[in-house]
Amino acid sequence: MANINNPYQVYRQTQIKTASQGDLVLMLYDGAIRFTKQAAAALEEKNWENSCNYFVRAQDIVEELDQTLDLSVGEVAENLHRVYRSMKYFLVRANMQKDPVLAGRVCKMLEKLRAAWAVVFSKSPGHEEREGSIGA
Question: Does the global pTM surpass 0.85?
């Protein structure tokens, strides 16, 4: 539940409740990218506890993206499923091996997929990409 004393939290809750399905997917990508970058930065600082927490949050988002796939629709969903599973594996590995380079590779994969989805959603009726405002 949003803290009514925190205007940012109220804004974020409203943004999520009123977002289109496409915007929600992009927000998930934004969160996974942000947490993966934060995990890599925490690794560089040798802050193992924070890096672990950020990796877990990124993994949870990738899992959410994977769980929302409808595998009955065909090859694209199946391929995304494999990509998401690989990302989760590499996030776990980066966390266990304290490897910011591997985390960076996952982040680049997430950024490429986010960019592709942004193009797909921008072509759907009634959608406007709000660069920078999603997941800020």
Answer: no
Can you say whether the dihedral through the CA atoms of 130, 108, 84, 60 is positive or negative?
A: negative
Compute the distance between CA of residue 132 and CA of residue 34 in angstroms, rounded to an integer. Answer: 13
CATH class label, 20-122: mainly alpha
Cβ-contact 29, 113 below 8 angstroms: yes
pLDDT digits (tens, 9 = 90+) for 49-65: 999 999 999 999 999 99
> Within 13 Å and on the Cβ side, how many CA atoms surround 113?
25
Candidates 74, 42, 77; CA nearest to 58 is: 42
Measured in degrees and rounded to the nearest 5, phi and psi for residue 133 equal -90, -20
Residue among 94, 116, 119 nearest 35 (CA): 94
Question: CA 21, CA 10: separation in Å to the nearest integer?
Answer: 20
